[in-house]
Amino acid sequence: MLYRYGTLKNDAVVSIPCADETAPPINRLPVELLAEILFRTLEQPDFTRRSYRGIPSKLSFSPGKDADPMLLAQVCRHWRSVALSTPLLWSSIKIRYAYKTKNRIPLLQTWLDRSGTCPLSIIIRELPLGFEDPAEWYSQQRALKTEIMTLLISHSRRWKSVDFRFARRLPEALAALSPGSLPMLEFAAVQGRKENHDCLEEVVRDLDKFWDAAGTSLSLRKCKCDDQYCWHQYRHGRFRDMCWNQLTTIDVAMPPDFLFEILPSCRALTDLRYQECGELSDDLRYRPSLTTVRKLENPIILPYLRHLSMKTRFMTDFIFESITTPSLVSVSIDQSPVPSTTHPKPSTFSGFLARSNCRLQIYSYDSYIDLDDGGEDILLEILDSSSMSSLTDLTVYGSTDMVKLIPFLAWTRERAKRLPRLQKLALHSIEPPSGALSEMILSRRTSEGDGTIQLQELLLDFEISQVDLDTFDALRREGMVIFC
């Protein structure tokens, strides 16, 4: 167990008994168990469907709203001894800074020292806030992020996961990374903003140097690529050389024809997050020619893909026609508005599931297609497919005009039960009539021994009528989990 927490001050950890029978029960636990509890307290995994799962914990390196080992160390002398003697507690760092941010470099150095030899998870968020003179802001920020990055790079051989988002250009210090300098890196996301079109080449050059170093890590499994970088590399044919064959998770925005050039190399892929490039820029130089994408002769087989998330406009059907995913369990679709002539066809998605012969368990649907133009009907036809009978978790981002979904989900004696295994339901931004929610939920709480599963968890993000709230109180007393 001690190995899990690093080797720094292990002797001190072993020598912290708390045998006082008057001490709180938690302080009489073995030190290793207390350290585990503290670590779990700091962990804040974000498993929402719209978040990226690359980094398991998000911590700050200064006391604040985020969980912080420094706060735990202030509880009592015993906790302080355990916290200061457990390097793993200090191995995740979240740095948020803006103009006139107080210099915390000494604190960052202390944090890194306390992490011992543990692998590091680092998040950086540069915020362009609190300035009137852009030139003054840029000068101050440039100096601060260079100092931060120089210190972090001195520990680069311990980087396990990094998520860097800079408000302007990448710091020059990041270009000091060289191939072989990131041997432990498993996840990488780096984003810098160009200040104008003329300096895009400089941003790309800086990112090239980072990805050249990251790509030599045999541990690299997950990456999120900067949108502008994807565009530039696609246009110059240079992105094909990345280590796609060893990645299990990719988060990219690129033209669909290029996506299907790299997917055959992604044999180990388990998680794909894709944004159709037509959404990226108003600059016509960066718009893809979506109508000229070449149809594949045979679908690409992704044998291990389990999670698929897409933000698309024109190419939803094309993507589902072009892949086969026998291990798929989760799909999230963010469908931008399109002309009615290019609406996605529910039969294409159902055919994709049937061809893949997978058992889909989680489905999230967010469509901006006008309901008067058939947006809700598209969803209902998808949900009514026999391929969705294995679904256990459904999320819908709707609108106040969505009136058919709630009656559709209700179980009745007059028709076969839809989504018979659904256990979790999340609904956003709809406005059902008073009592309609209660009727639907109560119908799905009955069990007749026919293999169906009761609805167990409900999340609602809209105004609830008093009639439904009264029903929810009774359902909570029965053990159902309801958030509203």
Content of β-strand: 15-25%
First-to-last CA distance: 40 Å
Radius of gyration: 26 Å
Query: How many runs of DSSP E, i.e. beta strands?
Result: 16
Q: What structural category characterises the helix and strand content?
A: alpha/beta
Strand order of the largest sheet: 1-2-3-4-5-6-7-9-11-12-13-14-15-16
Give start-end ranges of low-pLDDT stretches. Answer: 1-16, 45-59, 279-290
Apparent shape: globular
What's the average pLDDT?
79
Q: What is the helix content?
A: 25-40%
Largest sheet data: 14 strands, parallel
Helical segment count: 15
Describe it:
By secondary structure, the protein is an alpha/beta fold. It has helices at 10-14, 31-42, 69-72, 77-84, 105-114, 134-153, 200-214, 227-235, 256-262, 316-322, 346-356, 375-383, 405-409, 436-443, 466-477; strands at residues 92-98, 120-127, 159-165, 187-191, 222-225, 249-254, 271-276, 300-301, 307-312, 323-324, 330-335, 362-367, 393-397, 424-428, 457-461, 481-483. The relative contact order is 0.05. Helix 5 packs parallel to helix 6, helix 7 packs across helix 8 (227-235) and helix 11 (346-356) runs parallel beside helix 12 (375-383). It has 15 helices and 16 strands. A 14-stranded parallel sheet has the order 1-2-3-4-5-6-7-9-11-12-13-14-15-16.
Précis, in short:
The chain has about 475 residues and is α/β, with parallel strands linked by helices. Helices cover about 30% and strands about 15% of the residues.
